[in-house]
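Thread: Newbie trying to understand structure tokens

Hi all, I'm a second-year student working on a class project, and my supervisor (Dr. K.) asked me to get a predicted structure for one chain before our next meeting. I've only ever worked with sequences, so writing a 3D structure as a token string is new to me. If someone could post the tokens and maybe explain what I'm looking at, I'd be very grateful. Here's the chain:
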Amino acid sequence: MGNSWATFGRDLHLDLTGPGGLRAALLHALRDAVRSGRLTPGTRLPSSRSLAADLGIARNTVADAYAELVAEGWLSARQGSGTRVAERVLPRATPASRRTTGPAGHPDRPRLDLTPGTPDVSAFPRTAWLAAARRALTAAPSEAFGYGTPRGRPELRTVLADYLARARGVRADPDRIVICTGFMQGLALLSRALGTGRLATEAYGLGFHRDVIERAGLRTVPLGVDEHGARTEELSALDDLRAALLTPAHQFPTGVPLHPDRRAAAVNWARANGGYVLEDDYDGEFRYDRQPVGALQGLDPDHVVYLGTASKSLAPALRLAWMVLPDRLVDPLLAVKRTGEWQSGQLEQLTLAEFISSGAYDRHLRGMRLRYRRRRDQLVAALADRAPHVHVSGIAAGLHAVLELPPGTEQSIVQAARWQGLALEGLSRFQDPSAPTAPRDALVVAYGTPPDHSFTNALDALLRALPPG
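---
Reply by user tm_fold:
Sure, no problem. This is what the structure looks like when written as tokens:
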């Protein structure tokens, strides 16, 4: 078949041996060269004609391989600049001889990532967002380029009121919506506005949420979590309680929805005691097996604060989130917000308002639901085939799944994954150390985090790390 190798530019060897024909062998060789770091981001590849001549194969075979790798995101092609290794092909494996290692030779920087916290940022709708930004800037009034107000842009608050009512069942008026720079800022503002006392948080959750609350002067108290979500019936037994922070649609990280009786118990506690439920609806748009349950806020807008964010639906870099407040909390919260530089960028707010009102946001969410559902299905099918003893718990929703493990195996599996170059979190990482909760071995697998081109590799690494049945 002619030469089975070619050298171009830097001393790169392409081995076209293996099953599947020349095209499949060339695809594998090029992916491997990028993955291993032999072809670095931005490297220009030879023309299809030149590479075909070097390899002794048909030019159409090379052109087809280039086109497929461009579609997958490994390569980029622009008229006038040729075909190059895509800048965003990350993470890639570091050659073993140069890999940074920690104590006892452990790899410092896993090349694959299944840790929760971010969506697939490579799927950010750049073209549609840019078009929305252009339209928003063209129509923006001159005062939009000033410092802004603590509430946020009226254009975004108006659009959000309509969207949240339609998509999440939230009862919202634009005057009760406050824009903030992410969920964490919203939580910090609310904690300051609530003053002194205690705030209940779920026994499984994010430790830095508790830190934010406590830095604001409140004390946190854990609320038990089981297969029906937070045990909200415990709220009435807690003294000096101002509010409870809950994830009703999809408990983070255990992945279960709050049972209807417990939803009612949370609202009844807030009504009876003049307290508040802080509803973290971090991934409420992503339900795959049925229509999403409406927001808890719809049951009682006077006692439930709804918190939403663009961090999971679009990208954390936008630093855009929103709160829908009860009337009696609006002025106290705005008073806190006026004391510092708490405002979100006005131009980003205008762009998001245009992005939602144009229908681009809905289209993006539909596409991402399909993408994440396929990944979750792929994860479940792979486990059923290769690790049937590992059970997936929780509902089909969000950007992560919980894998139940044999007792005593969580930490060893997390370490085994690290040896596979895979970043992974165990469920114990999210347990409140002060909660009297029995240990539970499980993995929190964020199938929504990797870009498409690395998800299969991450899944393979996960399966290799799991113990045999």
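A couple of things are worth pointing out once you decode it. DSSP finds 13 helices and 17 strands in the chain. The first strand starts at residue 75 and ends at 78. Feel free to ask follow-ups in this thread.
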